């Protein structure tokens, strides 16, 4: 059964898409934590960073270069932004499909600490 992000990539579930090509898609987070909060995903299902293999290196680089392009397009590059990949339960990963958070548009705090 496909995961929610695979369904978004296959356009079975609507999303506010800000970028798409043959290998990646980016869409606005439904629960943003900043004025700009975009998720960049590979269209290929990869559950987590722990599942990346050598054949995925270019695709993982594509996630970062796509995030940079979107940050430029949304005019948040000059003042800065964060890129975040959560991995597993302790890392706060909620969807079992690797995704890169592009977060910006306002000053951001550093709140990463154990519960």
Task: Give an overview in words.
This protein has a domain at 4-80: HIT-like (HIT family, subunit A). The protein is built from three helices and five strands. It has helices at 4-9, 57-73, 88-91, and strands at residues 17-20, 24-28, 36-42, 81-84, 100-104. Strands 1-2-3-5-4 form a five-stranded antiparallel beta sheet, covered by helices on one side. The longest helix has 17 residues, at 57-73.
- Percentage beta strand: 15-25%
Helicity, as a percent range = 10-25%
Major β-sheet strand ordering: 1-2-3-5-4
Number of strands: 5
Task: Based on Cα principal axes, name the global outline.
Answer: globular
Euclidean distance between termini CA atoms? 32 Å
Q: Look at the structure and give the mean pLDDT.
A: 94
CATH superfamily of the domain at 4-80: HIT-like
Please specify the SSE layout and strand pairing.
Blueprint: H1 4-9, E1 17-20, E2 24-28, E3 36-42, H2 57-73, E4 81-84, H3 88-91, E5 100-104
Antiparallel strand pairs: 1-2, 2-3, 3-5, 4-5
Defining key terms:
five-stranded antiparallel beta sheet, 23% helix, 115 residues, alpha+beta, HIT family, subunit A
Give a short synopsis of this structure.
The chain is α+β, with helices and mostly antiparallel strands and 115 residues long. Helices cover 23% and strands 22% of the residues.
């Amino acid at each position: 059964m496909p995961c929610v992000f695979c369904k978004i990539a296959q356009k079975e579930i609507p999303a506010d898409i800000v970028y798409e090509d043959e290998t990646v898609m980016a869409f606005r987070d439904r629960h943003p934590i900043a004025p700009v909060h975009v998720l960049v995903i590979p269209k290929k299902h990869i559950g987590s960073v722990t599942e990346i293999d050598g054949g995925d290196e270019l695709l993982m680089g594509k996630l970062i270069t796509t995030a940079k392009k979107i940050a430029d397009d949304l005019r948040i590059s000059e003042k800065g932004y964060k890129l975040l990949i959560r991995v597993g339960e302790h890392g706060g990963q909620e969807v079992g499909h690797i995704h890169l958070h592009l977060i910006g548009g306002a000053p951001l705090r550093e709140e990463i600490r154990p519960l």
